[in-house]
Amino acid sequence: MSVTYYVALPFIRMEDGVEPGQAQEMPSESAAIRRAEAIARDASNAGALAFKRSGDPAMGSFNDAVVLKTFGEVRRSGDN
Q1: Quick one: which of 55, 50, 3 has its CA closest to 31?
Q2: Which of 54, 42, 22 is nearest to 8 (CA)?
Q3: Which one of 6, 31, 65, 66 has the minimum C-beta count within 10 Å?
Q4: Angle CA 10–67–73, to nearest 5
């Protein structure tokens, strides 16, 4: 059975750049986007992004994450 997870992910300023913080699962795509926007407004965070990921948890197989929206400074996989 396939499920979709919606997530808001903060990015925190560190001495050597920006690192991801604690992900927060949300009930819907729009809720993840709103939460990411609110996280990014917090001055203690560099930014945030909202993403979704679908797959079958029983099989342990998931599709790649799809970024829904980014706010502020974020670092995606492959960025230097």
Answers
A1: 50
A2: 22
A3: 66
A4: 40
What is the structure's pLDDT at 79? 52
If we measure between CA atoms, which residue out of 3, 10, 79 comes closest to residue 40? 10
Q: 47-56 and 66-72 as β-strands: parallel, antiparallel, unpaired? A: antiparallel
Instruction: Decide: 66 and 52 in contact? Cβ < 8 Å.
Output: yes
pLDDT digits over 16-60, tens only?
Answer: 888 999 999 999 999 999 999 999 999 989 999 999 999 998 888
Sorted by sequence, the CB contacts under 8 Å of residue 73 that are 6+ apart come out as 11, 13, 18, 46, 47
Q: Give the pair of three-digit tokens for residue 76.
A: 């995606």
**76 or 57, higher pLDDT:** 57
Q: The whole model's pTM is what?
A: 0.85
